[in-house]
Each structure stands twice: as structure tokens, then as C-alpha cells.
Write a structure and sequence with these properties.
The chain has about 425 residues and is α/β, with parallel strands linked by helices. The protein is about 40% helix and about 20% strand. The protein folds into 3 domains: about 5-45 and about 105-180 and about 275-345, FAD/NAD(P)-binding domain (3-Layer(bba) Sandwich); about 190-275, D-Amino Acid Oxidase, Chain A, domain 2 (2-Layer Sandwich), CATH 3.30.9; about 350-415, no CATH class. It is built from 15 helices and 20 strands. A hairpin with a 2-residue loop joins strand 14 and strand 15 (about 225-230). Helix 10 packs antiparallel against helix 11 (about 325-350), helix 11 (about 325-350) packs parallel to helix 15 (about 395-405) and helix 12 (about 355-365) packs across helix 15. The protein starts with 7 loop residues before the first strand and ends in a 13-residue tail after the last helix. Bound molecules: flavin-adenine dinucleotide. Flavin-adenine dinucleotide (FAD) binds near residues 12 and 309.
Length: about 425
């Protein structure tokens, strides 16, 4: 096996995780081959980026390009019902170095930008499906002969030093090696489409609406709004048999959606996603590693996916460059801790405690003592929406403590996501 910058790395999957990793490795002088099958549905989820993604855009040198086709995102609006909305502005979040804005992006353009960046950095993009096989009964993997062949003189008939699964939720390596995959608690389905004529309260904010059943997002994109709703599977079959029927019927049925979509027109097919909450038991093996969704995905709420994809890509590049077993263990622990921290916050969203807490905070800010406390809370609590502070122990503890003892008798059940 080669060491240092002479390593050869094969990445299977050309989404945000694969392309970001390819760029960082190529910048370190490694020989990087990335297989990108280009099989993309007409729409792809992952359009709303949290502010903690912006430093990666800067580091990759693509912020201006992303700004040219994305929409500027200044905050988040939580719609509890037709009477109460809560706005969180990223520029009011105290402390931390995270930028106070972000972007919403059409995913096809964003993925293309990331791939071109990887190519400019020196990675070789092979526009085909990469395939793997197990080396005998061992837990080592190799590329199939056709996959090696497709890389031409970049692999020159040899196997790479490392094989990286960046295949998204397809998770090729866990399937081949039969690795345990832990599913999340929620069994929801997401239906996603683009619409024109949909109202948003604040044009610069991503909207999260609590609905009669489930919740939905409204993400303003240039000339359209991305709408997605998350419903427990048991409610779906009442709405029709196709994704289109289910989407259109629910828009008419839910009182709040009916109101903001009254002049709306769906301009895309409807995409369906389910069983997406999952985490693989082990993200690193003898000559392979998992990155991005291939390692784990928590939930669409709070838009953590693209951040975790980029953070894990950066961390894995560092581990590969270091090359020691300790560095890979550290990578494995880091990604798992990140996924667990998000999962904890997200559970507080679904059980109603977080929405109750934020509503109370809004109320108490009207009082003097509330304003004093607010100074402290604003440093820690809303930073979960910027993606900045999710793994910070004190912030996590504060969310836990406040949502257990700080609800002042308010029953979180009232704001539970059904
Ligand atoms: C309903 C829903 C809503 C979401 N909304 C958001 C959001 O608003 N914001 C956010 O940050 N995140 C969101 N996410 C998460 C986000 O979509 C993912 O976290 C992100 O796409 C992960 O990137 P990735 O590169 O790991 O995987 P992917 O984006 O899935 O990329 C994998 C790529 O690999 C290719 N591929 C697969 N197998 C092979 C192979 N064998 N050879 C070659 N190529 C291959 C695929 O075609 C694909 O292009 C959402 C997720 C869901 C389910």
C-alpha cells in the first residue's frame, strides 16, 4: 500500500459527499478516481443548506458560483398554526464563527458545481457505475475488473489503496459486507415537488410548518418553491395510490397548506422517499470507508444532511492523509457523535418539546428577566439551526435541560408531530 500523497483512492458516488472528498484528497496530491453514475431523478432533496455549510463553500472556492444560482437564506420560520409563527434570524444568533446566512440551491446545479470543483482539483471523474466485490471471505473489498478497466491509465489495472462508499442511501458496502444498519424510530414518507405561486411568509427564510398530520417544508428557490411533506406511512394510503395523487390530495386536505397553495401550481413530478433514517454500525474497514448518507442519515428536519456529508468528507480526507488506525477510529467516532447529536435534537422536534420551548422563549422575551436569560439562550439554543453547535456538550445539555424543566407546565403533546 502506498503512503502519504501517493495513495490511490476510488470513490463510488458523485454526490456532495463524494465530490467534496475527491476535492480534498486531490488537493493533498492523491490519485483520486471518482465513479459518478449520473443517475439522478428530476428533483433531488437537499436544497436547503444550513449556515455551517458556508465555510465549506468558501474553502472549496465556490461560494460566488452557488450564490449566482441559489437563493439567499437569512433564517428559519416555524409555522405552528394559522395564528402563530416563530422567526429565527441567523444574524441574531450570538457567538460562534459560523456565517449568519446560507443558501437554498437547486441540487442538480449544486452537485454539478461540486463535481467540477473536484475535477479542477485533479480528481478523475468516471461517468459510470462503480462496482465492488468482496475479496474471498475476508472483509476487504476490491473493484470489479470492469470498474478497474473503466478508469483506464488512472488505475492502470491496479486496485486502489482505499475504496470509499459515497453512494448515498444506496449504501453499497454495507450491503456487500452485511453490516448492521440501525434504523431510526420514525417510519415516515417524504413527498417532494416544485411549485409556482406558493406563498411564503418571509422570502429569505426556509419554512417548517406543523400540519394536521406530519409537517412540511417550503424552501424558496429561484422562480419556484420546493415543497415537501413528511407523513407517517399509516396516513398515506388514505390519500391515493400514486405519489402525485397523494401529494395533490394532501395539499387540498390540510387547512394550512390549502391556504398557502391556493394559487399554487405543481410544475414537477412528485418524488417519494422513505426509510431514510438509518446509521451503519461501522464506517471504516480494512481498505474501505463510508462517507455522507452512506454512513448515516438522520432526518430532513433542520437540514443537517448536506452539512454532515461535507463535514464527514473533510474529516475522512484528513484520516486518509494521516493513514493511522487511530485517525480512522477518530473519524468513525466523529461521524457517529455528529449523527447522534442531530438525532437527539430532532427527537425533541417530533415530540413537541422544542417547539414548546421556542414558543415560551418568545413569550418570556417580553419580560425583563426573560431578556437577560435570552442573551444566554440565544448563544446556545438557536445555533442548532445554523448547524454550528449541535455537538457542543453544553448546548445539547441546555436543550435537554430546558425542554425537560423549562416548559412551565406547558404540555409538549400539543405540539407533537402526528
Ligand atoms: C426527504 C429528504 C429531504 C432532505 N432535505 C435536505 C435539506 O433540505 N437540506 C440538507 O442539507 N439535506 C437534506 N436531505 C439530505 C441530503 O439529501 C443528503 O444528506 C445528501 O444528499 C447526502 O449526500 P451524499 O453525497 O452522501 O449522497 P447522494 O446525494 O445520494 O449522492 C450519491 C450519488 O452517488 C451516485 N451513485 C450511487 N451509487 C453509485 C455507484 N455505484 N457508482 C457511481 N455513482 C453512484 C448517485 O447517483 C448519487 O449521485 C434530505 C433528505 C431527505 C430524505
Amino acid at each position: 500500500m502506498e503512503s502519504g500523497s501517493n495513495k490511490t483512492i476510488a470513490i463510488l458516488g458523485g454526490g456532495p459527499a463524494g465530490s467534496t472528498l475527491a476535492t480534498y484528497l486531490a488537493r493533498k496530491g492523491m490519485n483520486v478516481v471518482m465513479y459518478a453514475d449520473g443517475k439522478r431523478p428530476p428533483l433531488i432533496v437537499g436544497e436547503s443548506l444550513v449556515p455551517a455549510v458556508v465555510p465549506y463553500l468558501r474553502d472549496l472556492g465556490i461560494e460566488d458560483e452557488v450564490a449566482s444560482y441559489g437563493t439567499w437564506k437569512g433564517g428559519a420560520t416555524f409555522v405552528y398554526n394559522d395564528e402563530y409563527h416563530l422567526n429565527i434570524w441567523f444574524d441574531q444568533v450570538r457567538g460562534g464563527d459560523t456565517p449568519t446566512y446560507s443558501y437554498n440551491v437547486p441540487r442538480d446545479r449544486f452537485d454539478a458545481t461540486l463535481r467540477e470543483t473536484a475535477s479542477r482539483a485533479g480528481a478523475t471523474i468516471i461517468p459510470t457505475t462503480g462496482r465492488l466485490e468482496r475479496e474471498g471471505d475476508s472483509s476487504r473489498l476490491r473493484l470489479t475488473p470492469e470498474t478497474v478497466e473503466a478508469a483506464g491509465d488512472k488505475l492502470a489495472g491496479r486496485q486502489p489503496d482505499w475504496i470509499i462508499d459515497a453512494m448515498g442511501r444506496g449504501r453499497g458496502i454495507p450491503k456487500i459486507l452485511d453490516l448492521p444498519v440501525e434504523a431510526g424510530d420514525r417510519k415516515d414518507t417524504a413527498l417532494h415537488a416544485h411549485l409556482q405561486g406558493v406563498e411564503v411568509e418571509i422570502a429569505t427564510n426556509v419554512h417548517t410548518d406543523r400540519l394536521s398530520k406530519g409537517w412540511c417544508w417550503r424552501i424558496p428557490l429561484p422562480g419556484r418553491v420546493s415543497v415537501g411533506f413528511i407523513l407517517a406511512d399509516e396516513h398515506l394510503h388514505e390519500l391515493g395510490s400514486t405519489a402525485e395523487e397523494q401529494f395533490d390530495n394532501f395539499m387540498k386536505q390540510d387547512p394550512m397548506m390549502r391556504e398557502w397553495s391556493k394559487s399554487g401550481r405543481r410544475i414537477s413530478p412528485v418524488m417519494k422517499y422513505n426509510n431514510y433514517q438509518a446509521r451503519v454500525s461501522c464506517g471504516v474497514g480494512e481498505n474501505w470507508a463510508l462517507v455522507g448518507d452512506a454512513f448515516g442519515f438522520v432526518d430532513p428536519v433542520f437540514s443537517s444532511g448536506m452539512l454532515i456529508a461535507m463535514q464527514s468528507a473533510h474529516a475522512l480526507a484528513e484520516a486518509i492523509a494521516d493513514g493511522s488506525p487511530g485517525a480512522f477510529d477518530e473519524y468513525d467516532r466523529y461521524v457517529k457523535a455528529n449523527l447522534d447529536a442531530w438525532r437527539n435534537v430532532i427527537e425533541h422536534f417530533y415530540d413537541g418539546r422544542l417547539l414548546t420551548l421556542f414558543k415560551l422563549g418568545d413569550h418570556f422575551r417580553q419580560k425583563l428577566w426573560g431578556r437577560v436569560m435570552d442573551f444566554h439562550f440565544r448563544k446556545h439554543m438557536p445555533r442548532i439551526f445554523t448547524g454550528d453547535d449541535v455537538t457542543n456538550r453544553y448546548s445539547s445539555w441546555l436543550v435537554e435541560f430546558m425542554s425537560t424543566y423549562g416548559l412551565y407546565g406547558n404540555d409538549p403533546e400539543e405540539l407533537r408531530i402526528l
